[in-house]
């Protein structure tokens, strides 16, 4: 099986939520961040979670999960800071790195396996990006480890979009059910709508 390290960037300030932390919101009976991390662990033996600090409440909800927690002291620099710190910790035996946003409650273990299988089928040579059922680009994205050096120079809050764009000639897209790859909850209104549509969660 291809070795794929998961990276869950969870060091951001969640500013659009006001005084609430979106990653601590309950989903399926646990904090959103814990649920996402648990699904990642179910399909990968190496999961990195970036955090604002080792003592942050987000670290507490990960207690008992065998994830690698990486504090990001310069998290205010944006998503790029999380990705720089996390990719620097990717082990040498990894063949790919899957970037899994922490605020996507609808991604399932089967979704993650489907994206991983596409990467393995392509012998780890291509980037793999999940899309909605309609083909709209979304998350997660797997990057081959030969691109890890490109993460060192990332800046700002655009994440790895520049790397994705520069390597679109070696990009495979995989459609996931519905809007699994598109639903992210980073505003109070998004949460209200999602909860209205998912009353049992």
From TrEMBL:
CDD domains: GT_2_like_f. It comes from Marivita cryptomonadis. InterPro entries: MobA-like_NTP_Trfase, Nucleotide-diphossugar_trans. PANTHER family: MOLYBDENUM COFACTOR CYTIDYLYLTRANSFERASE (PTHR43777:SF1). Pfam families: NTP_transf_3 (PF12804). The keyword GTP-binding does not apply. Residues 7-167 form the MobA-like NTP transferase domain. This is Nucleotidyltransferase family protein. One of its GO terms (molecular function) is nucleotidyltransferase activity. Keywords: Magnesium.
């Amino acid at each position: 099986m291809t070795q794929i390290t998961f990276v869950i960037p969870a060091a951001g300030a969640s500013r659009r939520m006001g005084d609430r932390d979106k990653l601590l919101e309950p989903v399926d009976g646990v904090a959103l961040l814990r649920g996402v991390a648990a699904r990642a662990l179910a399909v990968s033996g190496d999961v990195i979670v970036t955090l604002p600090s080792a003592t942050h409440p987000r670290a507490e909800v990960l207690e008992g999960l065998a994830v690698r927690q990486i504090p990001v002291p310069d998290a205010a620099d944006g998503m790029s800071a999380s990705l720089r710190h996390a990719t620097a910790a990717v082990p040498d035996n990894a063949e790919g790195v899957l970037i899994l946003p922490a605020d996507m409650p609808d991604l399932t273990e089967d979704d993650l396996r489907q994206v991983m299988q596409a990467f393995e089928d392509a012998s780890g040579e291509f980037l793999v990006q999940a899309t909605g059922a309609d083909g709209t680009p979304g998350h997660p994205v797997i990057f081959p480890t030969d691109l890890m050096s490109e993460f060192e120079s990332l800046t700002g809050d655009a994440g790895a979009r520049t790397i994705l764009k520069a390597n679109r000639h070696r990009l495979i897209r995989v459609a996931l059910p519905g809007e699994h790859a598109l639903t992210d909850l980073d505003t109070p209104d998004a949460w209200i709508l999602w909860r209205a549509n998912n009353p049992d969660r």
